Amino acid sequence: MPFSFYLPLPPSVNHIWRRGKGRTYLSANYSKWLKVAHAITLDDMPPRPLEGPVEVRLRAYRGKGWMDRKRDLDNICKPILDFLVRRGVLVGDDHTVIKRVIVEVDPKPIPEAGVVVSVRDFEGVLDD
C-alpha cells in the first residue's frame, strides 16, 4: 500500500484562510495550489480512501519559493494533510486515521521548492 508523490510547496498555514464580510474563505494562493496539486496527482492516488492507521512522511526540498527565509515546518503539514482528505486519499486527518506524521527537510536544494509526500500503513508501536 505505500505510495509517494511530489507536490509543490504549499502556502503556509498562516496564509490559507482569509476573512472578509463576515465569512472565512480559502485564499487565492491556496486555491491555486489545490488546483495544481490535484492536477499533479490525477494518476497517483489509491482507488479508494485509506481508512488507516497510516503514517505520513513529508520530505521538504528548499528551492525557489523557499530559499532565503525561515519557514516553520509545522506550517507545511496542515495544507498537505487537508489536501489528502480533499483528494480522497484518506478518509480523514484525525488521530484515528493518521498515527504518525514525520516532517523533514532535505539538505540539498532543488530549483523549485516542493514536498515528497509518502503514505504507508502504520506498523509502529507508540509507547506512553
- Helix count from the secondary structure assignment: 2
What is the typical, i.e. mean, pLDDT?
89
- Total beta strand runs: 6
Report the principal-axis shape.
globular
Q: What does the radius of gyration come to? A: 15 Å
Percent in strands:
25-35%
Q: What is the strand arrangement across the widest sheet?
A: 1-6-4-5
Percent of residues in helices: 10-25%
Q: Which consecutive residue ranges, at least 5 long each, have pLDDT under 50? A: none
N-C termini distance: 27 Å
Listing every helix as H and every strand as E from the N terminus to the C terminus, the arrangement reads EEEHEHEE
User: Structural class, judged by helices and strands?
Assistant: alpha+beta
- Summarize the biggest pleated sheet: 4 strands, mixed
Structure notes:
The longest helix is centred in the N-terminal third of the chain and has 13 residues. It contains 2 helices and 6 strands; from the N terminus they run βββαβαββ. The chain has a 4-stranded mixed sheet with strand order 1-6-4-5, with helices on one face. A two-stranded antiparallel sheet has the order 2-3. Helix 2 links the parallel strand 4 and strand 5. 20% of the residues lie in helices and 30% in strands. The radius of gyration is 15 Å and the shape is globular. With 128 residues, it is of the alpha+beta class.
